[in-house]
Amino acid sequence: MSPDTLSTPVVETAKTAPDRARSRAQAARRRKTIVFAVRVLLLVAVLGLWEVLSRAKVIDPFNFSMPSKIWDQIWTWVTHGTALGPLGEQIWYTLYEALLGWVIGVIAGVVFGIALGRIAFLADVLGPYIKVLNSIPRIVLAPIFVIWFGLGASSKVASAVVLVFFPVFFNAFQGAREVDRNLVANARILGASDRRVTLQVVIPSATSWIFTSLHVSFGFALIGAIVGEYIGATKGIGLLVAQSQGTFNAAGVYAAMTILAVVALAAEGLLTFAERRIFRWKPSGSDS
Amino acid sequence: MSTDTSPAIELRGASKIFKTPSGGLHTAVRDLDLAVGRGEFVAVVGPTGCGKSTTLTLVSGLEEPSEGEVLVAGEPVAGVGDKVGFVFQQDATFPWRTVLSNVMAGPRFRGVPKAEAKEKARAWLAKVGLAAFEDRYPHQLSGGQRKRVALAATFVNDPEILLMDEPFSALDVQTRALMSDELLELWEGTGASVVFVTHDLEESIALADKVVVMTAGPATVKQVFEIDLPRPRKVESVRLEPRFIEIYREIWESLGEEVRITRERGAAHVA
User: What is the ipTM of this complex?
Assistant: First the structure.
């Protein structure tokens, strides 16, 4: 390639450069539109196929329902409310449990992770216990929490906390362990006390580790809240799923799933936004 | 007062033995005697990996000697003192802090009020020519600019003792010469005692009053050379002087042998 570019007269390259840039931008735009169009097409095709197969009774509409029925179900919930009360209230209830559980789990995970990452004695003493606790499939704790804390929000918050705690803890621990030793040495030379090193060197450098766990763990918090509600609750989307299932309303189960997906995606979007603001110092992503 | 007459830095029979991950023992520094006078610029040269850097970590208080004594201003070193500045080989600027905040870090860690720290930091940023960059983050700067930030962040603490561990080895040749000149200018205003570790003999002669040649690892002092080139020096021009070349030849005779030993050992390891 390079011999060609070299042999091109200078005047001509100067003239064609803006054209080339424009055509390149155009091509990039075109590609974006095509990707988006195919994406939408794929969704329409899948939903359409589902609808047609279900209407033609190729798949059992009673078990598999169909997109139009699911949409009707959502619409009914939105306009007339659910059997448990208004839909917004159910969403809010689940979201509240998940958020509270998430916040508590994250704070506990970060504090313990950093503490154990910094204090080798604590890590040595508690290490095996944490491994044992982590090996329990934590979702089985949800029924116990219902027994302990009753049908209210606290049992769901508790199951969200135990699900969130471990991934956050392990990432914070790893983050605290993998701090650049040069940075720590530099901070100490510059006069930082141990506390300052923790607060101003270890925690900032562990944030990128912690943030990767935050994305996953919010999903876990929702799972905790939903499973808790599913087992026993008075309100919430998990209960909605359980009730729909109890009345063999497949459309209801799918509708609740759809609502959950939207809620999870919105939360994910918020988190990404916060992350961009916090990580302005990072070289990755668009500059300036 | 005995402290007034004692040298700025003194190592007496200092040794440092590390445990290797495989459980063995590795002697990085062996029976090291070295004295650095007040306001003196000492360069330490030696083959790569011989333990030069370890010497600096002993003086800084980041590591304790396994045997022997390390004295700073006549006092035994116990932990990181507030007289010491350290410029590292790798980038040690805090990536999440802006340039200004990086330079303010030292004074803030030492409890200087914010406004005063800011003022001092701005003055040093101006001295290293980065006044216009105070709001940037380190990743937005070039390697040379980041080194300048590191220099400003070190000098802002007014260190009496300045330890430098191959600070310019990651820079390209031109930037390196420029930074060496800047370092000399900055240093001449402070009267700090400097220990500058490098594997580049030219750099060491151009900068220092005294060049210490280390043996192949475990490191100990092999020979000390006084550099009688007049100051102020310009790194680019001083290296063309006949006296410079004479000194270079003399020291290389001593250093070259150690480099050869290190190389042969490396070859033996590979074989």
Answer: 0.85
